[in-house]
Structures are given as structure tokens and as C-alpha cells.
Design goal:
Chain lengths: 273, 384, 67, 181
């Protein structure tokens, strides 16, 4: 029996979601569950692994198998889950704190190792859960509760990082462009090998409030106004691209995943004994 | 079926790998570190030969995470490291405790703190093994003193881990890890292997943390990918694996993590007794130091002196009944350990008999010698 | 006919549906709640449903409406 | 009383001392049903610094694996010789490589110098020096049978059959010169 209504994957009794009004997390969650439905994923064969932070609470609302561990380590748990049972669909949900900051090393190595999991990193440019401190993706000069005079450091371009690490699928969407977002998430889940989708999202309560986006709609508009497609970005002069989020698919290629390669290791090792 | 016994002359670390495979372990994730690296190398070599899997992670945090994940996908999993690695693994050791995930961590202890003397032995991680991760919890820690132990007790570690749905730490040390010695790699009969209890209820009724209705107090653990869909969260959770922060729920589960170990102490703990029946003095020792202690017992015996040894094979839960029995009978106790006094504190805690309990510490990376132990006993004798 | 329903128990009145509806179907109450003021203008694009962070909006498009 | 032999193999890193100890241990445990232990201590660097291996072979159980009173000491470098020669007990034997060690001194125990390294070169491979040493040790101590060591050598080089004969030759050479005083 295949499930194809997205809300069959939603634990409705846990609603309303615990996130603030206008938080992009719910939008991404919806996109993920709709992708599950489109792909007809079996709950028994699907494991959603989450990190810590606002987005790390997403598993509370998902009715597949779930695993919720420690901050930044979701990809580590997911690596074990997937390698020990390659038949599973493993989807890893991380925030920018999880994926690009405390767990940044796990991210690049998971990409390099090419374990067949899908990582969806919701980037709201700050630590929402702990009160809006800066993260590894907070843009230079922007304001957070720990960069009250403007942020000293630069933020990561996480897609470039994952691309450089060798992932076979790397894409970026945002919570405004929901149709594109869902398409990217669905493609990423279907992709064999490490697939990565970064989602530019909003944190109205903290990042938005401190950076001039007074309302949820204002934050959404800010994302809309500051996002450009890959095609457009290619045509724009450098200074006009400054501070813009480039949307689209950066990498989509075929690289044999860890399990396929390791199967050959097993054959070789068994020959020896 | 006849079981095959292979005699080998190998290192403790290599015997651990053979023990893990014999116990049914098929997944290793780790990060190499002296003096444990032979376990990584041996696992990379041996696991694929039996259809298992080795993955070298980017650090010990990721390694611990990966073995927890693999265990939940139904594979018996383990990792090996030394003290600095345990420091990093301690974070996710808590995950294994809270998620009640069976797995085995091998700590081949070296001299610390920090980088310390990387190639040299120590026994300084006794308390780290007990309390390394934050929060109240029970833990099983086993300490080998021979290469044969490295094989036999690794199997025991996996069995206990599966039986009690808990991480088990195998607290070896650089001496035992690198010691080459005769070992009999017994072929293990299937009935000697414990596998975690599987649910048999209707899948829609399965609750991964419901321990109360189980005779042994341990909830069955399904595997991801089976017909049982389940949730593991290491936020304080209820029986269904749903985050639940009510005080009553927290109290129930936090006590459970300690109780399931402490209440089964009799079943879990292993001690070895040498010459204790009519001993005047006793040595309480573990790990590589137990070998010096045993030598001391033998030397004393040749000289007509009555000295016994209680070897703590299981360090945690602490074998307080057996230690008490010794304290009750002898005139004095010496506790040699390659640290500044960690196990001795536990012995003193239950010394209600007013006998002298003296420590013998060494932290210069050298093994405690039998002579030092005998001298210490003489010292105690003189004070009486 | 397109049928829009808003579950008031789930809606957090963020205003995203109101602001970004391409057909200006919604208006806002003083307390910020969305109101389906111009249902007839709805094209059934479902962007409001997809963008609602709170799973509060359902847009049903009957078969007759699909061109 | 069980028969026990305590052996120290010393030299510098890279001389194959752990390998010698392993051959002795394997011969004893796998092929003669005895017990054996091998403890090696070395610096952080793999090559060039002082190393030693403690080997104990016994018919009975071995509790403490470190050599407290050696029956035989092998020294393959000056630094190793200097460390053990002076404290050698009366009933102990010191075997040293006189092609590498020139500065010798008096000791209570017996000392035997052999050109182990030179002989290995003559055999065509310096890497067999440690096996020559094993031959000398089993000759001097009588703790193990030649056949057991040959079996252990065959095991060790099972994946490199070409060098088995060379190593057996080295072992026999060691036994042969070990007979000389």
C-alpha cells in the first residue's frame, strides 16, 4: 500500500507546530512531506534524522521512523543508519547551526564519503532556538544577539562548501519559491549518493527583528528580493551579486556511493579468505 | 557440530576484533588513535571478510554517532579509541544511554590527561568511564587482563549490551592492548550469543521505550527497516519515543537508566578470586595491574604468606558485595592502580570494617611491579 | 469551484498567505487573521497552502476547474 | 615447578625485534603448547630509537608479562648493550652483535658476541639478522625446538614463499654459531 497524501506523513495530533509565526520551518516540512507523498515512500523504510535547534524539532511531526540525537551530529547517526541498512531512505534535517557550524566537519566528510542520504539544511542565518546568536552562515555586518555591533565574520556559502567536498547533488532553494523547493527536495531524495539541499529561510523573531524585517511577510519579501537564479547570477556583474542568495541546482552528477564501493570491498575480502 | 578452536599468538587489540566478530558484530566506525589503532586496522581487514562494514569517520563524535545509527538499523556495532577519543565520544555515549542503544566502546587506556604519553599505558579513565557523559545513568564497564580476556570478554561485552540495551565500555589499556600472548579463539556456539529482544506485538502498538510490562525490565528494540516504525529521541521522552518533559516522566526514565544496571548487578558483574579463602591480606586490582597482583600472590604463596587477590573484571557496576566479603575477612587491603586512586575510593566507601585500605599508585607510565605490591602489604602489616 | 479552508486552531496569523497571494484573495482582520474575501478570484495555484508554515490552509480544486 | 625462560630483545627501532619476539611466541604457543608473552616498548618514532621486547616462555601460566630477571638478553645496538651489560646477573647470558657493538665491558653473566649483521648481509639480506638472533637464542636456551620455529617462519611468510627458505637458512645459521663459544 503506497501512501500518497502528504498529511499521512504528518502527525496531526502534534499540531500546531511549535515554531514562531511566520517561521519558514513549517514550509520546508510541508515540502518534504509532499515529496515523500509524491515518491510514495514507505514509512517502514524511511528514517528521518534530525539535529538540534528549531529545525531539529521537525521529527516531532513526521510519522516515519525518526531519530533525534545531538547538536550537529545528525549526519553521523545517519551514516550508521544508512550503511547498516542500505535499503533505507535516510533524510537528514539540519539547521545552519547543526550543518554549517558545530557539525560542519561532518557535513563536508559526509559529502566526500558519498553516503546515500539526503541532507536538507534549513538556513535561517542565526541560532533561533537559543535566542538569535550568530552562526556559521550569518552574513557579515548583520545583527544578532551576539553581534550587536554588526557581525565581524563572513558567513559560509554552504552549497559551495558541499560542492567542493564532492557531493553529487547540491542545490539551494528558499521558502518563498516553494514550487522549486519541493522539486529540488524530491530530486535530492531520488538521487543516489549524498544529496544536499540548502533552504534559505526566515527567522522573524530574531534575525528578522534585528535586521529590519519587522513582519513575517517582510522577512519573506527580503528573501524574495535577495534571491536570484543561477542563470541570472551568471549574467550579473560581481557587485550586484553581493549579498544575494543564488537559487537552483549547482551539481547533479553520478558518483558511485559508499555502499556500492564497499560491496566490492566485501567481495575482494571474501576472496582472500 | 564440533567447534573449532584456533590457538593464536596475537595482541590484545587483535583479539578484541576476533571477539567482536565472534559476538556477531558487523559494523565498526572509528577514528584511529594510539594505542587502539590495531582494532581499527583489524576491523577494516576482518569485517568485510564476514560481510560486515568498516567506516573511518572524521572524528570520534561522528564515530560514536555512526555506531548508534548502525545499531538501530539492526547491526551489532562497536568503536575503539583511547582516552582523548572517549572524551569526544562522551557526548554521544549519552545518546546511547538515553536512547537505550546497544553498542560497545573499546577504550585502550593511555597515559593522560590530554595527549599525555600517547604510547604508554595507564588506568586513569576509570571514573571517566563511569561518569564521562553528563547526567545520571548506569553503565557497564569491563576490564580485561589478558589477551584471552580480550577475546572472551569482548563477546561478553556485546552480550551484556544486547541484553540490557545499553552501551558497554571495554576498558583495556596499552599494556593489554599491545601484549602478545597465547589466545584460544574458541568457536562460539550460537547459544552463547545474546541478541537484543525483538518486539512481537502488533506494529501499531510498538513502543520502543516501554519497559514496564517486560519481565526483565528491558524494552524490546526493533530495527529500522522492519515492519515496526519507531522513534528514537534522546530528548527526555515517553514510552513511545515522543519528547515529554513532565517531571514524572523524567523521574521514571532517568531512574530506569540506572536501575536496569544496578538491579541486575548480580548477573552483570564478574570477579576473579585467587587465594582468598584464608588470606590475611588482600589485593584488589583490575586490568594489567591484576597481573602484577597475581604474580605477587604467587610469590607470597611460595614464601608461605597468605595473600589473596580479588580481580575486578567488571569495574562498573562496582562489585560491592564481593568487595565487602573481602573487607570483612582480611586484616588489610592494598589497591594498586595506574592512576592516583580511583577504584580505591569505591573500596573505601564500603569499608565498614575499619581495616586499613591502602592505595598504590603509579602514573609514570610504568607497570606496577609485584615487588611494589608486596612491599606495600608489608607496610600495612607493620602498621597493625 | 476552488474551496479554501483555514483552520483557525493552526493559523498563527503570520500574514504570508495574505501578502503573497498572486490573486489577492485574502484580506486581514485587525488581529492579523487572514480572511478569504475574494474566493472567486482564486486560481487554485495553492501557493498559500504550500507557503503556510502552519499547515492551516487547504485549497481544494475540483476536477472541473482544471483546464 | 614450571620451566620459565625470560628473554629481553633489545636494539633500535626497525631491527625486527618485535618480529623476533613474535616468532618465539608463536613457536612456543602454537607449536609447543606452552605459554608465552611479548611486551614491547618503543618511542613514538618507529625507527632509530631504543626499543626492547620482553618475551617470557613458560610451561605454566605467566602472570606478570615484564621481564624482571632475564635469562637471556639480546643486544643489537650499542645503546642496548650499554643498558644491560653492567647489570647482567651471574646466571644470565648476553648475546650481542659484534659487527655493530664494539665498546664492550665486563659483566657478571656470560657474554657472547657474534657478527649477526654481517652474517645476514652475507646471506643476502640484512632483514634476516633478527632470525639469526632467534637461532642463537633457541640454541643457547634450549627453550624451543628448531622445527617449531621453522613452522612459525612458514606461517609468517606464507604470503611471501620466496623468503621462507632464506629465513630458515638464517635460523639454522644462528643455531650453528650459537653452538660456538
Amino acid at each position: 500500500m503506497s501512501v500518497n497524501k502528504y498529511d499521512d506523513y504528518l502527525i496531526k495530533e502534534k499540531l500546531p507546530v511549535f515554531w514562531c509565526a511566520g517561521c519558514g520551518n513549517g514550509i520546508v516540512l510541508g515540502s518534504i512531506l509532499r515529496s515523500f507523498a509524491q515518491l510514495g515512500l514507505k514509512k517502514e523504510n524511511t528514517v528521518v534524522v534530525t539535529g538540534i535547534g528549531c529545525w531539529g524539532k521537525a521529527d516531532d511531526y513526521i510519522s516515519t521512523n525518526t531519530f533525534h540525537g545531538t547538536h550537529g551530529r545528525a549526519l553521523g547517526f545517519a551514516t550508521g543508519i544508512k550503511l547498516a541498512n542500505p535499503k533505507l531512505n535516510v533524510i537528514v534535517l539540519m539547521g545552519d547551526g547543526d550543518g554549517a557550524t558545530i557539525g560542519g566537519n561532518h557535513l563536508i566528510h559526509a559529502a566526500r564519503r558519498n553516503v546515500d542520504v539526503t541532507a536538507i539544511l534549513v538556513n535561517n542565518l542565526n541560532y533561533g532556538m537559543t535566542g538569535g546568536q550568530y552562526s556559521g552562515t550569518t552574513p557579515h555586518a548583520s545583527y544578532t544577539t551576539t553581534s550587536p555591533y554588526g557581525h565581524v565574520e563572513n558567513g559560509f556559502d554552504v552549497c559551495k562548501l558541499v560542492k567542493a567536498a564532492g557531493a553529487p547533488y547540491v542545490a539551494r532553494g528558499n521558502v518563498y519559491g516553494v514550487i522549486q523547493l519541493q522539486k529540488l527536495i524530491k530530486e535530492a531524495i531520488e538521487k543516489k549518493g549524498f544529496s544536499f539541499v540548502e533552504v534559505i529561510s526566515t527567522c522573524t523573531t530574531h534575525y528578522g527583528r534585528l535586521n529590519g524585517m519587522k513582519t513575517s511577510a517582510g522577512a519573506m519579501k527580503w528573501i524574495k528580493d535577495n534571491s536570484i537564479s543561477i542563470e541570472r547570477a551568471e549574467k550579473l556583474p560581481k557587485e550586484e551579486k553581493e549579498g544575494k542568495f543564488v537559487m537552483g541546482k549547482f551539481v547533479d552528477k553520478d558518483i558511485e556511493d559508499y555502499t556500492a564501493r564497499y560491496d566490492r570491498v566485501i567481495s575482494k575480502a571474501k576472496e582472500i579468505i | 557440530m564440533t567447534l573449532n578452536n584456533k590457538v593464536k599468538f596475537i595482541q590484545g587489540n587483535q583479539a578484541v576484533v576476533e571477539g567482536a566478530i565472534a559476538a556477531g558484530a558487523r559494523f565498526y566506525a572509528g577514528y584511529p588513535i594510539t594505542p587502539s589503532s590495531e582494532i581499527a586496522e583489524g576491523s577494516a581487514n576482518r569485517l568485510p571478510q564476514v560481510g560486515g562494514l568498516y567506516v573511518q569517520m572524521e572524528d570520534e563524535i561522528g564515530s560514536m554517532a555512526a555506531i548508534i545509527g548502525a545499531s538501530l538499523s539492526g547491526k551489532k556495532s562497536y568503536t575503539a579509541t583511547s582516552g582523548p577519543g572517549i572524551s569526544l565520544m562522551s557526548e554521544n555515549l549519552g545518546v546511547a544511554v538515553m536512547g537505550e542503544v546497544p553498542c560497545v566502546l573499546i577504550n585502550v587506556q593511555r597515559s593522560g590527561p590530554s595527549t599525555g604519553l600517547a604510547t604508554k599505558p595507564a588506568q586513569g579513565d576509570v571514573m571517566q568511564a563511569r561518569w564521562g557523559t553528563h547526567g545520571d545513568h548506569g553503565i557497564i564497564v569491563i576490564s580485561p587482563s589478558s589477551v584471552q580476556d580480550c577475546y572472551d570478554l569482548t563477546i561478553e561485552a556485546f552480550n551484556l549490551s544486547e541484553k540490557y540495551r545499553t552501551p558497554v565500555m571495554f576498558l583495556s589499556d596499552a599494556t593489554i592492548g599491545h601484549l602478545k600472548e597465547k589466545v584460544v579463539l574458541r568457536e562460539i556456539a550460537p547459544e552463547e550469543i545474546v541478541n537484543r529482544k525483538q518486539p512481537n506485538c502488533d506494529p501499531k502498538d510498538y513502543q520502543p521505550f516501554k519497559f514496564q510490562d517486560q519481565e526483565d525490565g528491558i524494552a524490546p528494540l526493533a530495527a529500522y527497516g522492519s515492519e515496526y516504525v519507531f522513534r528514537i529521541t534522546t530528548t527526555t521522552h515517553d514510552e513511545r519515543g515522543m519528547a515529554n518533559s513532565t517531571p514524572a516522566n523524567a523521574d521514571k526514565f532517568i531512574r530506569h537508566y540506572t536501575d536496569k544496571i544496578e538491579k541486575n548487578k548480580k548477573d552483570i558483574t564478574i570477579v576473579r578470586k585467587y587465594n582468598l579463602e584464608d588470606a590475611d591480606y588482600a589485593i584488589i586490582a583490575f586490568g594489567c595491574t591484576a597481573r602484577a597482583a597475581l604474580e605477587a600472590v604467587n610469590i607470597a604463596k611460595d614464601k608461605g604468606k597468605k595473600i589473596g587477590l580479588l580481580q575486578l573484571v567488571t569495574i562498573w557496576p562496582f562489585a560491592d558485595d564481593e568487595v565487602r566479603e573481602v573487607l570483612k575477612k582480611v586484616k588489610g587491603v592494598v589497591v594498586p592502580e595506574m592512576n592516583l586512586g580511583q577504584i580505591i575510593g569505591e573500596v573505601k566507601k564500603i569499608n565498614d570494617y575499619g581495616i586499613p585500605v591502602e592505595g598504590l599508585s603509579r602514573v609514570d607510565s610504568l607497570m606496577i611491579t609485584p615487588k611494589e605490591i608486596l612491599d606495600k602489604i608489608e607496610e600495612v602489616e607493620k602498621c597493625l | 469551484m476552488k474551496k479554501i479552508t483555514i483552520d483557525p486552531r493552526l493559523c498563527k496569523k503570520c500574514g504570508i498567505c495574505v501578502e503573497f497571494c498572486p490573486a489577492d484573495v485574502y484580506t486581514r482582520e485587525l488581529d492579523g487573521s487572514p480572511v478569504i474575501s475574494f474566493q472567486e478570484k482564486c486560481t487554485g495555484c495553492k501557493l498559500c497552502e504550500l507557503r503556510c508554515p502552519d499547515f492551516a490552509i487547504k485549497v481544494e480544486v475540483s476536477k472541473n476547474d482544471i483546464k | 615447578m614450571s620451566k620459565t625462560c625470560q628473554i629481553i630483545l633489545s636494539g633500535v627501532g626497525g631491527q625486527g625485534l618485535v618480529s623476533s619476539g613474535t616468532i618465539l611466541g608463536e613457536s612456543a604457543t602454537i607449536y609447543e603448547g606452552k605459554n608465552a608473552t611479548l611486551v614491547s616498548s618503543y618511542g613514538v618514532e618507529t625507527r632509530g630509537t631504543f626499543t626492547k621486547s620482553d618475551v617470557i616462555i613458560s610451561d605454566g601460566d605467566i602472570s606478570y608479562p615484564e621481564v624482571s630477571k632475564p635469562d637471556i638478553v639480546l643486544a643489537l645496538a650499542q645503546v642496548a648493550y650499554d643498558k644491560y651489560a653492567a647489570d647482567l646477573s651471574e646466571d644470565a647470558v648476553l648475546i650481542y652483535d659484534n659487527s655493530l657493538i664494539s665498546d664492550t665491558k665486563e659483566s657478571k653473566g656470560k657474554q657472547f658476541g657474534y657478527p649477526i649483521n654481517d652474517m645476514a648481509l652475507k646471506l643476502g639480506n640484512i632483514a634476516v639478522a633478527n632470525i639469526i638472533a632467534v637461532g642463537i637464542i633457541i640454541q643457547k636456551t634450549g627453550i624451543l625446538k628448531e622445527e617449531s620455529v621453522i613452522e612459525a617462519i612458514k606461517d609468517k611468510f606464507a604470503h611471501k614463499p620466496k623468503v621462507i627458505d632464506l629465513n630458515i637458512e638464517a635460523l639454522r645459521k644462528g643455531i650453528e654459531i650459537g653452538m660456538e663459544v
